[in-house]
Amino acid sequence: MNSLISVIIPTLNEEQNIGLTIEQTQLAGKCEVIVVDGGSTDATLAKAAAADVVLSSPLGRALQQNSGAEKATGEFLLFLHADCQVVTGFSDAIVNTLSVPDVAAGCFRQDIAHSSQKYRIVERGNTWRVRNLGWIYGDQGLFLKRDLFEKLGGFPAIPLMEDLYFSKQLKREGKLVVADHPLEVSARRWEKNGVARQTLRNWSFVAMSHMGVKPATLAKWYGHVREE
């Protein structure tokens, strides 16, 4: 399938989300949807059948996303978590953002599915992080041109924080920006761990990374592979 945009979705036991995410992606814009499963033991694969391409890969977001990118045919790549839903117009937002000179990559403005004002603070904080530090996390919907992704060799093959390390590579290629277009994001991680605790946890792992703690060690402390 030759589409302008390839949407790559890594999965692990996402039977509750993947069907809706695929449906919303296909309704919101013409694109190629690629699901890369890391060994689900539930009904994820059955519910992912509507995708244009369904692959199996060794477990790990970096490995899964790289596998999906290898099969992608689009000029642009969007890496989307299984519990995030794009909104109509997302494809235009990607093309328009990446057509600006000196922009290497972008992401969307988060719209976390919870009414509490605490989540509005999280959303603003995550936007601030991209604009001021140049760090795009996976649940913001990272997008870039396929040529640049291939030039950089894809995500580093590490078990944790591949998005942060890849962002650092992207910053050397140009600006990282937040498109003024929403991405609907599940609140499940914050609901499970608490907003303050989850935020502190994220920043503590970033700090340890900058202090030189190896990704493999951080992954052991984090719980190795994330199912959020």
UniProtKB/TrEMBL annotation:
<keyword id="KW-0808">Transferase</keyword>
<protein>
    <submittedName>
        <fullName>N-glycosyltransferase</fullName>
    </submittedName>
</protein>
<keyword id="KW-0472">Membrane</keyword>
<dbReference type="InterPro" id="IPR001173">
    <property type="entry name" value="Glyco_trans_2-like"/>
</dbReference>
<dbReference type="InterPro" id="IPR029044">
    <property type="entry name" value="Nucleotide-diphossugar_trans"/>
</dbReference>
<keyword id="KW-1003">Cell membrane</keyword>
<feature type="domain" description="Glycosyltransferase 2-like">
    <location>
        <begin position="6"/>
        <end position="123"/>
    </location>
</feature>
<dbReference type="GO" id="GO:0016757">
    <property type="term" value="F:glycosyltransferase activity"/>
</dbReference>
<dbReference type="Pfam" id="PF00535">
    <property type="entry name" value="Glycos_transf_2"/>
</dbReference>
<keyword id="KW-0328">Glycosyltransferase</keyword>
<dbReference type="GO" id="GO:0005886">
    <property type="term" value="C:plasma membrane"/>
</dbReference>
<dbReference type="InterPro" id="IPR026461">
    <property type="entry name" value="Trfase_2_rSAM/seldom_assoc"/>
</dbReference>
